[in-house]
Amino acid sequence: MSQSKKIFYAFVWFCLHFEGRMGVFGVETGEIKTAVEGDSVTLQTEKQRDEELFWMFGPQKVLIAQVKKEDGVFKVHDGADGRFKDRLVLNYNTGSLTIKNIRPEHAGPYKLEIISDTASHKTFTVSVYALLPIPVITRDSSQCSSSSSSSYCSLLCSVLNVGHVTLSWYKGNSLLSSISESDLSISLALPLKVEYQDINSYSCVVNNPIRNQTTHLDISELCWPCPAPLPIPVITRDSPTCSLSSSQQNCSLLCSVVNVSHVTLSWYKGNSLFSTTRASDLSISLSLPLEVEYQVEYKNTYSGGI
């Protein structure tokens, strides 16, 4: 290579490397690429004969790949901090650069400087989105209380550790509500109220510009009327067992509750379960007997409960 040509290349390199252009990180936006974490992204170009290529990354224009045909140089670099180690593939025929298993730290501006008898360049801006989690739908059980008489079921759709996403509730194909967040690694939650007997189709969707994840609501699984407040068990003595001629040494007791459903009624001796009975029917009355000696020691404490 002649001395004058070397000087020309050096001058072109200097001009391209330090030119100031408006846009992301100080260079023009150029071609925009979007990817999900773990994907491979190819920055396309078509190398002509005798062209020398220099791929650079970031505002500091760190050299990450190069093709210098005259010197036989064809290689990729790890980058100043090693972030591109084992991730770059350079196509010798076209000069295109592929970033494998891309991560958020590989997002940013890329610049390709092309030098032959003339000089030119291409720019790319790469955005990398994290993998989207599946939204989780839960019931807000705090809405049920002893005084609750609401006919609505309160739900919450949540996603954890997300960034640059929108979380939305849909009724069929119609958008009901949504919330967006541009920060990184944040948790989002979006409430929804539906009637217990609602037969419509609801779904919660989290999405970014290139992907989405959906969870469909099963109303029959998550939504049921709030349980009625439990009555206080009543303990009574079974007086018919007592008579003037009675010489029994035991006292017959009865623990009762009325108009209950899906409950368990139990007798305890201290902290030990003594006896129990269950009912899964609706609006039923339960009774559980117990016999104790009249002169039972004070240390034995009996209680009935549901």
Automatic annotation (TrEMBL):
Pfam families to which the protein is assigned, alphabetical: V-set
InterPro entries in alphabetical order: Ig-like_dom (IPR007110), Ig-like_dom_sf (IPR036179), Ig-like_fold (IPR013783), Ig_sub (IPR003599), Ig_V-set (IPR013106)
All copies of domain Ig-like, residue ranges: 135-220
PROSITE patterns: IG_LIKE
UniProt name for this protein: Ig-like domain-containing protein
Organism, scientific name: Cyprinus carpio (Common carp)
Lineage: Eukaryota, Metazoa, Chordata, Craniata, Vertebrata
